[in-house]
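Per reviewer request, we include the raw input and output of the structure prediction for the construct analysed in the revised manuscript.
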Amino acid sequence: MAHILVVDDERSIRNTLKEILEFEKFTVDLAEDGPAGLAKIVENDYDVVLCDIKMPKMDGMEVLEKALKADVETPIIMISGHGNIETAVEAIKLGAYDFIEKPLDLNRTLVTLRNALDRSHLEAETKTLRKKIKQIKGYEIIGESKAVADIKEMIQKVAPSEARVLVTGPNGSGKELVARQLHELSQRSKAPFVEVNCAAIPSELIESELFGHEKGAFTSAIKQRKGKFELADGGTLFLDEIGDMSASAQAKVLRALQENTISRVGGDKEIKVNTRIISATNKDLRKEIAEGNFREDLYHRLSVILIEVPPLNERRDDVPVLANHFLEMICKEQGIARKSFEPAAMDALQEVNWTGNIRELRNVVERLIILGQDKITAKDVNAYVNPGK
């Protein structure tokens, strides 16, 4: 249901528009002057704003200008009883979606409003797609070892289901790639893939990050904010490093999985969510459970399917394939003439102890491209794999 804000100093017009728009099944907020309207525009995520131009304290053109400077992307339709072509042109130049003269024609107002909503939704979809394309680019599982073949086969079987998946493995081994492939091959692939790194967010903020918060829930909560569960509605929520999640957040996640509902921090409203959960960890969760650091009931909720990603040292046959993949990708990204590995250099790479796994291999390949010769040699590998040691 679209959320509309009407900013007008005339009470009769505000109330009339509210009545008409609510009859059309819109949710409507009202503001009686420019400052009040601007505050609401900045603090809330409206779908469309209808804003009068001639108002006391702050006119509509100033509201428009300040809203755009605050990076508000909501379409703003200007309305005025003192309209002329110059005012309309100025409003459009400033960034207004459209201009409507008073007295308002109901049909024209509704058509303009719906067109603005269509544009708003289209822009949101375009942003999601661009973000998705950016995320997918380069995110493929590379390797020819039996371990990688088994993981790919498991993904093919599990992805079309709604089963929750727990991906385990050391840092840098490619757990995120597994999660993204599960999403891309699922029925939810057209919906968002939302990632949360539970280890990177302070424990006091993780609940707000996951479930969102209401305005005033805590000191810095100056506006309502949706959490990752809501943002991933209809799609996939990837909880990376779930073993580092605080006990209170674990309890709330468990409740969300049991009831498919969440509550924002500082609010008591139950919000329905339809989100598939894929989680990952580099920890032994069984050990964490035994030590009282992780809830066993949450573990069982998350681990309907278990996928283990082995370290690179256990699949050294994949090193040449991965190294050549990174070499081609990095040379292309950086506009460098394509280099190549001498056979002895590739043998040397296979002998390295890859404690940082695939992430470390990628960094090493980039270092070799920048510092090595056109033909990367074993000497280059020995010199640049562990610089300073």
